[in-house]
Amino acid sequence: MTINFLLNGLIPLHILFHATEGEIYGQEMLDELRHHGYRISPSTLYPMLHRLEERGYLMAREERTGKVMRRYYKATRKGHEALQQAKPQIKELFSEIIGGGSI
C-alpha cells in the first residue's frame, strides 16, 4: 500500500518553508523533496508552485542564464503569515504522532 496521497499534503508546507528562507526554483525543490523521501514528479510540482503563486503565497521572477530561463519563487508576506499560522497545528499534530498515540 502506498501512502503518497497522505504525504503529498505536506509538500506545499515544505515548499513554503523553503520559500520563506530564500528563493527557490523547481528543480531545486524536486531535489530537496526527493532527498526527504517524497516521490514527486515535475508534473506534480510545477502546478503546485503555480497554485501557491496564484493564491498569493509565492511570488515569482524569471531570469535567463544563457539559453535557460529559470523561474525563481519566494514567499510573499501572505506566505510567511500562513506558515506562521500553520505552525501551531503542525507542532500539535507532529507531537501527537511522534510523542504519543498508539503507533
Give the gist of this structure.
The protein has 103 residues and is α+β, with helices and mostly antiparallel strands.
Structural write-up:
- The two termini are 17 Å apart.
- The mean pLDDT is 90.
- This protein has 103 residues and is an alpha+beta fold.
- It contains five helices and three strands; from the N terminus they run ααβααββα.
- Helix 3 (26-35) crosses helix 4.
- The protein has helices spanning 4-7, 11-21, 26-35, 42-54, 77-99, and strands spanning 24-25, 58-65, 68-75.
- It has a single domain, classed as Arc Repressor Mutant, subunit A, CATH 1.10.10.10.
- The longest helix has 23 residues, at 77-99.
Number of strands: 3
The pLDDT mean sits at 90
What is the overall shape? Answer: globular
Spell out the helices and strands N to C.
Answer: HHEHHEEH
- Characterize the quaternary organization of these chains: single chain
Q: What does the radius of gyration come to?
A: 15 Å
User: Which architecture does the CATH hierarchy give at level 2?
Assistant: Orthogonal Bundle
Structural class: alpha+beta
CA-CA gap between termini:
17 Å
Main sheet summary:
3 strands, antiparallel
Q: What is the third-level CATH name, the topology?
A: Arc Repressor Mutant, subunit A
Domains counted in the coordinates: how many?
A: 1
